[in-house]
Write a structure and sequence with these properties.
about 325 residues, alpha/beta, Quinone Oxidoreductase, Chain A, domain 1, Rossmann fold, 2 domains, seven-stranded mixed β-sheet, six-stranded parallel β-sheet, about 25% helix
Length: about 325
Amino acid sequence: MGKTFRAIVVREREDGTFTRSIETRDTDELPPGEVLIRVHYTSVNYKDALSAIGNRGVTKNYPHTPGIDAAGVVEESSSADFKPGEEVLVTGYDLGMNTSGGMAEYIRVPASWVVRLPAGLSLKESMIYGTAGFTAALSVYKLTGAGVRPDAGEVLVTGASGGVGSLALRFLAKLGYRVVAAAGLVEESEYPRVEEKLKSLGASRVIPASEVNDTSGKLLLKGIWPGAIDTVGGNVLATVVKQAAYLGVVTTCGNTGGHELNLNVYPFILRGVTLIGIDSVECPMDLRLQVWEKMAGEWKPDNLEDFATEITLEQVEERFRLLLDKKSQGRAVVRVQ
């Protein structure tokens, strides 16, 4: 017998429905891997909520423990790269999808997935970032690397009230960009409060999502944005590309607004617009480490711990509901231990 630990376990009933509960497991039940990590913190993501309701596009086999992020301390390692007692984090790859995830007191993973905790970050702060923060930072890294400078004009962030969007906003503001935040999934009565919140995070101005959701059918729109980070996809992404300025750069990393993209070639052949896809799951380790160093250093926002709500494993179920109802704002970090 190995070590016993608590974990959220999703099980499929005979009628095809799914249940979620906190169970006691044994580390001998975990999948193979060189590094056993005692998890201190994880975070709650939309992909975790999909896994928790049995979405086969995320998780194929049940029972399963969700959690695409994890931060903790190495308990055992057969890899020369990591030693017991080291603080580490894991985001992306197959964690929480078909590999038992971070909503548990232990995970076992391949050493090639593990990132040593960068100096300047605590375990909790790394999970306030989590996959959402890494995706946001990778978007900013690609945008700045494509030559979009702070003096180019206002840059846009869509879905700015969500986890990825709000962190992208903070990174860009920290770097001196004038950021326009498009606030989606916000009821009209809530808009003033959300506007105030986004401005406190560094937005120079806030616009309703309707301004980047054009339904006119026009092939091109007035060129506005020298750079944009889209977290929504669908028609919003199509609108932003058509609104991009000459030689504008747009990154895309999400599909909550839809997975289809109805575009024509004119933004690309008449304005030279660049569209960059962002994948944080299989991001190569050398690039992954560079981005985490930025997040721990010069890009790190002030008062990062104020950015997320800390919850327990018992409170994760409510967060799943908010995410699935598209009512979740900001980040939730889970104290696992």
